[in-house]
Specification:
mainly alpha; Farnesyl Diphosphate Synthase
């Protein structure tokens, strides 16, 4: 359904697909169609399905029919998300994404910026083509997505500003605010869109924003912790966010309780005064301070608190189907990383076979081709 829902223009005819004018569309479609867990569009489709009063799905059920306008809005969410990743990879100088070289490493920064902008345009086109939506609903969905985009840029800008001019008085609350801006808005836009298209009353309450804020913050803290474990999908070594001087919660927690000597050591590492020693040795010094300040266990506690607050909101939702969806959302996003599920095992170059699925009933993804 992907090609039907988002028809090609420049690459529709195979004999013209290799022309320079078709390059951007070809790469954009490939980037949108492949790679990633597609969790945000799934949340849009699943929240629409649950809020519409449909039965809870379990493994083995037939894939239900999804209206085109719902599928297109979900695809728009993914287009905006993928665009942000393209630009984020350039800003962070990341080398790999989804087990492949990042677009700026494959094609150069100029092409990558243009491809990201093209994906944003595709997102607008998809919302515009969701013609079965009531105009007021379409406007609110578009407004939610634009707000998410602006807040994401605010969060990313805060991170880059910190890297350029570090604030060594950064507090855990400061770090959590940046986290809330970087991750929560996309979750909120995805959930809001599904609920709003279904006409569910929860869409017009503050529960959507609060729930997604707790989930998003918990997700980013887990990413902090994951940074110290490495990341096979994106070919990362442990501690790379720390060495890149990102305003992480772990750093803020350490600075809050570290001795003057420990703070100076962290500054020496981050400000390049210890670049004469190996990367491994510098990471060891950071980890030693983090261990002494007990930041890893404190971060785990904050993840648990985020989960508890999100669970409290779920309990206050007066809809069994939406409750079930939100629990699945929460458990999936805040799951400890134990390797990819069969649906997430998308790296064609991986030598590992997909793991066997757990036999117990689970929520299943709805097939919409995104």
């Amino acid at each position: 359904d992907f090609e039907r829902l988002l028809p090609r223009i420049r690459t529709r005819e195979p004999e013209k697909a290799d022309r320079p004018v078709a390059f951007t569309e070809a790469v954009s479609y490939d980037w949108l169609q492949n790679g990633g867990k597609r969790f945000r569009p799934f949340i849009t489709v699943a929240s629409w399905y649950a809020a519409s009063g449909n039965k809870i799905l379990t493994a083995g059920d037939d894939t239900p029919d999804i209206p085109d306008h719902v599928a297109r809005v979900a695809m728009a969410i993914e287009a905006f998300h993928k665009a942000s990743l393209v630009h984020d990879d350039i800003q962070d100088e990341d080398e790999f994404r989804y087990g492949r070289e990042t677009l700026h490493r494959q094609h150069g920064a100029g092409h990558a910026i243009n491809i990201g902008d093209h994906l944003i345009g595709l997102g607008y086109r998809l919302i515009h083509s969701a013609r079965d939506l009531e105009p007021s609903v379409a406007m609110e969905v578009a407004d939610s997505m634009s707000t998410a985009h602006i807040r994401l840029c605010d969060g990313q800008g805060s991170e880059m500003a910190f890297q350029e001019s570090p604030d060594w008085d950064i507090t855990p609350l400061d770090a959590l605010q940046i986290y809330s801006l970087k991750t929560s808005p996309a979750f909120e836009a995805a959930l809001f869109a599904g609920l709003k298209m279904a006409g569910h009353p929860m869409a017009d309450t503050d529960k959507v924003g609060l729930f997604c804020r707790h989930v998003g913050v918990g997700f980013q803290i887990l990413n902090d912790l994951k940074d110290w474990q490495g990341d096979l999908d994106n070919k990362l070594r442990s501690g790379q966010d720390a060495l890149a001087l990102r305003p992480t919660l772990l750093l803020a927690l350490a600075l809050k309780v570290a001795s003057d000597e420990q703070k100076q050591l962290l500054r020496d590492v981050f400000e390049g005064r210890l670049d004469d020693i190996s990367e491994e040795a510098r990471l060891h010094k950071i980890r030693t301070v983090f261990d002494d300040c007990d930041v890893f266990s404190k971060a785990e506690t904050l993840v648990e608190r985020s989960q508890e607050r999100a669970e409290a909101i779920i309990e206050d939702v007066d809809d069994e189907h939406v409750q079930s969806l939100l629990r699945f959302f929460l458990e999936t996003v805040l799951a400890r990383d134990e390797g990819p599920t069969p649906a997430e095992h998308l790296d064609p170059d991986s030598g590992d076979p997909p793991p066997k699925p757990d036999p117990k009933p689970v929520m299943v993804q709805l097939g919409i081709g995104v």
